[in-house]
Amino acid sequence: TSTSTSTSTVDLCKPQLWSVFADTSGIVYVDGQVETELPRFSTTNVFASGEVVWAVYAVSQGNDGGIIIGNSQKSLTNADWTCTRYKPATDWFSRRFQQAWPKAALIGTRDTGPHNIRDTGSLQPNATWIWAREPFNTTLHARNEVWCRSLAHPFECSRTTTSTSTST
User: Fold this and answer.
1) CA-to-CA dists, residue 81 to 2, 7, 11, 130, 150, angstroms
2) Is 64 exposed, middle or buried (0-12, 13-18, 19+ CB in 10 A)?
3) Can you give the pLDDT at residue 5?
4) CA dihedral 64, 27, 126, 124 (to 10 degrees)
5) Which of 5, 46, 116, 124 is deepest in the core (most CB within 10 A)?
6) pLDDT tens-digit series, residues 106-157
7) DSSP string spanning 106-133?
């Protein structure tokens, strides 16, 4: 008599649609890959699931800027994000990047965003705008640009493991 056992794991983590807004424009990276570019005052949607590194490069045409990512159930931009005004190493958007940055400044909730960007109805009301804490200084910075990132686990993924045994 012989017995064989096989085990399989199914990841039930489905990609979710996330709305991304940036003032004034930017580039969105998910797990080290360019996901999309954000033209002036635009919104884009990104599919992502599981634990991923979110990274956003954004430029504001004025003194105020903001980045917000979320959907109707969850805000991804929060106090866990870090941002800098100083151009980082070329791999700043990758998972392996380890440089310590200051925590992001929390600017306000969905409806208090910069430059009256109000087309944020797809986000939950407490979704949070973020930007760099360091002040914008025209002597030090040619443009009001920031690099922000976070390792985000936006929701729990369920996994099922199935074992089957056969005897002969």
Assistant:
1) 54, 38, 27, 8, 5
2) middle
3) 61
4) 140
5) 46
6) 988 887 766 555 566 678 888 889 999 888 776 666 688 999 999 876 555 5
7) EEEEGGG-GGG----TTS-TT-EEEE-S
Tens digit of pLDDT for each residue in 12-53? 567 778 888 887 789 999 999 998 888 765 667 787 777 789
How far is CA 54 from each of CA 49, 82, 84, 89, 122, rounded to the nearest angstrom?
11, 11, 15, 16, 19
> Which among 27, 44, 149 has a CA at the least distance from the CA of 94?
149
How far apart CA 122 and CA 126 sit, in angstroms, is 12
Distance, CA of 45 to CA of 116 (rounded, Å) = 20
Cα-Cα-Cα-Cα torsion 44, 47, 59, 32, nearest 10 degrees, comes to: -150
Q: What would the two tokens of residue 158 be?
A: 């369920």
Q: Tokens standing for 2?
A: 């012989």
Distance CA 127, CA 67 (A): 11
DSSP 79-98: TT-EEESS---TTTTSTT--
